[in-house]
């Protein structure tokens, strides 16, 4: 069936106009100009941390502005390509126009999703923690599969990751792991992954080949920034050091370099053992603890608002996705009903469809509330 290019391009322009309106380009340009002026100050690098934060923010906003503005040019170029193909009745150029139409659609969808990430911490980097839950060794193996899935997703997008802590299970897999995804909007994007994930498969650890259901929990937190003012008095934290555990052979296992921090007022415990030195592990663990306290403060504020509304607000993230590998293959989000038959691709990091549908679902749920 032939593509009706004028109708398709008109739809693209309409969607693009909505995105431009929501993006508030005048505000973006003003902020970019202001930060550019500050970045030109001769004493900028006297305070290295402040300079890095400023230049990083400027880079993020400039990229966001460019993405929106260049999309208009891309739609214009597509229209010219179509006119050229149809005017010369050139099948190859028409096929190129079809491919570009598909690419522009995808880019606009991505841009639209970004406009939905307007929460308090959505623009931040993310701290992801994965824990094995019910299901024994299968759950530990599943937790490791999920960790690889998110790391592969990050790698595909060119995002840097840093693993802070990995607690290995005895037979296979992991008990838990915490890692950072260092990219703008990583928290807003990945926060829809929070909740309980369920795996159904023939267990490779069961010599009778029985089907096993196992569970793993995913927690996503925003990375703390200097402006958050999360002060942790030294007396509120108990510091324990111990020898790092792992599959064996690494130099980290030869010294008491691993660090466990216990926040006494809340009982929150974090560990870090993947850095080479005790000092580095303590600094990384402190960053994770700050992120957890930031999230707890946000949840406490939300609970107060819900109490004022008279609502019983449960966790929307629980039991959020099923990965079925037996008797058929299907990965299905239980909140959005988005499903994919290629489970291998999902475990290899192809989760953009789930992320997009999750972000849209969350926005609808917020508006309905």
From TrEMBL:
Family: Belongs to the prokaryotic/mitochondrial release factor family.
Pfam families from the UniProt entry: PCRF, RF-1
NCBIfam families in UniProt: prfB
Keyword Nucleotidyltransferase (UniProt): no
Residues in coiled coil: 51-114, 272-311
Record carries keyword Protein biosynthesis: yes
The entry's keywords: Coiled coil, Cytoplasm, Methylation, Protein biosynthesis
Subcellular location: Cytoplasm
Entries under PANTHER family matching the protein: CLASS I PEPTIDE CHAIN RELEASE FACTOR, PEPTIDE CHAIN RELEASE FACTOR 2
SUPFAM superfamilies: Release factor
Gene3D superfamilies: 3.30.160.20, 3.30.70.1660, Release factor
Predominant subcellular localization, coarse grouping: cytoplasm
Name used for this protein in its record: Peptide chain release factor 2
Segments forming domain Prokaryotic-type class I peptide chain release factors: 243-259
Positions where N5-methylglutamine occurs in the chain: 250
Source organism (scientific name): Kineococcus gynurae
Posttranslational mods: Methylated by PrmC. Methylation increases the termination efficiency of RF2.
Function text: Peptide chain release factor 2 directs the termination of translation in response to the peptide chain termination codons UGA and UAA.
